Amino acid sequence: MNKILLAFVTALFALISGCGGGGGGGSGSTSSTGGTGGTGGSSTPTDLSGLASKFSLPRQDAQGWSILTPAADSRLIYVANSGNDTTAQTYTPSSAAVGTDPYNPAGAILPYATLDAALAQARAGYPDYILLKRGDTWTRTAMMAMKAGRAATERMVLGYYGSATARPIVKNYGLNLGHASYSAIIGIQFTAARRNPHSTEFLGFANADLNTDNNAGFDALGGYNNTVTGGLLIEDCWFDWFDGNIVQSPLTTAPVLTDVIIRRNIFTNNYSTAGHAQGLYSDRASIWLEENIFDHNGWYKQGGTTFSDPAEGKATMFNHNTYFGETRETVFRNNLFLRPSSIGSKFTSNTASGTNVVNTWDLWVDNNLYVEGEVGISLGGNDDQNNGPRWRNIHVTNNVMMHIGRTQPTLRTLGWGLEVQDWDGGEVTGNIFAHWGDATLNNNYAIYSSGDTNDVTYSGNIIYNIPSGGPLISFRDGAIQQRTKFTGNDLWTNSTATQLLSYALTSNAGFGGNYFYSARSAAQWFSINGAYASLDQYKAATGDTTSVAGQRSYVEPSRTLETYLASKGHATDMDSFAALLCTQSKMNWLPDLRASVINDYIRAGFATH
């Protein structure tokens, strides 16, 4: 992404609310889970089930929530504000006071009052359960150090009990998972209230405590004397106002973290005042990321004129909803990526000096919804030695992107969809890029493909209503991009200033069956090696004999997130949508707010008559 010099403009700072009362810059085919159950549908490519087998996904109930059952020798440790550390007791699943459901005890139990006293009763290497009473709140002075369970099927669990709708709340500090292999964190709200500018507990932007290493919602760091190797499950939690959340194997000699499952959580308002901040940061790990909500991460307010100054939580080009480095055997499925500081899903595969190596492989980004920010998905950029591919077997399928660049978080005037660079095999299939770009955005594209890229197929993608700044798709770098296939795609724009496609390849693996339409002069629809070209000239250059000029007859292509919300009777502004999403939990599950359902609605509008 750093290969193009960007224009930017200055503006007054603008504060908005996220679902935690947050800041900065808002506006106005259902898929399966690779055999894990819970969401239904059929748009997932069958190969995804092979990646699912890499993860110890628990059995799920009818609504798609993981079912965790204590072992016979599990210790059940209850915690409530009304408890007493002196008189508290631990229980077994067979205890009469527990009954048949450990999450809703049948009798009068004696809980602990403090989290530290309860944690002290949990035994490392055992499937013990620490259950916090729903609706209660604990204020921490340090991170909670979780312990390891016995196996992926017998996890140590930090969860909840009781029937209140509200999650248990842990304030100010999150979780240290550095010694917590085979553990599960279920249904807890972690909030850094001291970092929330809308809270009476806010310490102020200048307070040094806001920028320490202890401000992660959770930190699963391998190496550095930590023992975690994976087997983690994080589900139905909310991480709000931290400076990030971390899953990292930093040492090249350390075991790579594997079997990390993060599903149906909420990540909001993570920001930094002194450095970089992400909703979720990962390096050298294998992660199943499913049905999470990422909103307004990496920033509190709109950026400054340098677009790299984080003071007072300003948006910068370095902060994103997710930032995954050197990932492998990883799945992003059915997530909502909303209003990042810069990129919805940032991936890197950096190379050492000299020769490129493949550091990211077997990645599937499927059926996610991307709204706002300034970039949708980046799978390129950063450290590139230009000597070969850095990524292998990459799949970007069935995603929907819209309104990219609408609110200009960093004040840059760009709206970028997907960057493809240095891929060794992969596909970009069935995605919809629609409805962004206006007079203020002068740097827009849907797909930008470059570098040492080979054997990538682009098929069944729809690019609609992205005016100004094009071309909508760019294939660059001549001979070093090989065997590119481009078939069955629809490109449409009513802009007189936008080119459809730029082609600078020396050969390809087949171009054809595409639909093209632009309001621009027909002699300038395309660019061939930097020169304007007509459809016929494009066809001659690419060997395409079957593509046509014409507008597809779509059912309702004007559909957006806002029209979807209106159809459900919800307010249509982004702040209200974010607030509604933050009510999502197992106790208050609204299926119509899932990315897969919203994407189905958008996709149905692009069905043809």
Count of DSSP-assigned helices? 6
Q: Identify the overall geometry.
A: elongated
Mean pLDDT: 90
- Total strand count, please? 42
Strand order of the largest sheet: 1-2-5-8-11-14-17-20-23-26-29-32-35-38
Using only C-alpha atoms, the radius of gyration works out to 24 Å
Residues in β-strands, percent? 25-35%
* Straight-line distance between termini: 38 Å
Which class do the helix and strand fractions yield?
Answer: mainly beta
Sheet having the most strands: 14 strands, parallel
Q: Give unreliable regions as ranges.
A: 1-18, 20-46
Helix content: under 10%
What do you see in this structure?
With 609 residues, the protein is mostly beta strands. It has a domain at 1-53 and 264-609. It has six helices and 42 strands. The strands form three sheets. The chain has a 14-stranded parallel β-sheet with strand order 1-2-5-8-11-14-17-20-23-26-29-32-35-38. A hairpin with a 2-residue loop joins strand 40 and strand 41. The longest helix has 11 residues, at 595-605. The model is unreliable at 1-18 and 20-46 (pLDDT under 50).
Annotation keywords:
31% strand; disordered N terminus; single chain; 609 residues; 14-stranded parallel β-sheet; mainly beta; 6 helices
